[in-house]
Amino acid sequence: MKSPRSLLRYAMYGLLMGGADIIPGVSGGTMALIVGVYERLVAAISTAVSLGLALARFQFDEAWEYAREVPWGLLLPLAAGILLAVRVGAEVIPPLLSAYPQHMNGLFLGLVAASLIVPARRIDTFTPVHGVLVVVFAAAAFALVGLPVFDRTAPGLLRVFASASVSICAMILPGISGAFLLKALGVYEPTLTALTTLDLPYVLTFCLGAAAGLGAFAKLLDWLLAHRHDATMAALIGLIAGALRALWPWGAAERVLRLPAPGEPVGSVVLLILVGLAGVGGLIWWSQRTDTPRPETTPPS
Known about the structure:
Shape: globular
Number of helices: 14
Distance between the termini: 24 Å
Order of helices and strands: HHHHHHHHHHHHHH
């Protein structure tokens, strides 16, 4: 049984993850890495998926065993924090991004860039193969976040389902922003509108798509973390580094990297980049005071 202090801490982690997931260019998976719950979260989701599959097959004895293995004291507070942050963030963050795009991108750039240290420190032995993985995945992420935006007008429910199933995978991958993929697929703004207006058919379709995508991807990611941990961390470093393109403060709307144009803010943006770097540094320091060492991973059943 988790203590109230642990439950509150996990809820706070969920707030950070949900707040990150609502921002195009920032990943909730990155925040999970920063606060030290990433591997446990992926394993917990994988076990919960196995529970759901056992129930679907009416194998209740097996389902009960999986239910006992799920760390509910971690998942439930995280989920509560994520849902609260997404609901509030849908009201607060888009207006800030619209009013201060360069300043907000500068802050997020600092936050995400500082998080590179987290997967790097989790690699036990860095090899040339890991270096190749960093470069390959960085290049892939760099190209991905440069994709043009699809049409944003009234997406159909089938498109909503497919977009949710893809973006939810990105939301648990550090570096690849699920919100950014929703934006590239043209359903970011309609999804925020559906959340704020409580459009139930849209929201339910989105949730079903997210559940389908998460269920399929979490099992694969759990296996990779259990059997290829260092290689997976190297790939995550590349994903985070390459995705920084989406957060470059100048030219992000045009999907180009350029220097500041005359009249665009520079000093205040650079200051916010430094604030973001310092903020994540402090968060890492704080999480290390209460975090336990990374447990040895075991192959999933």
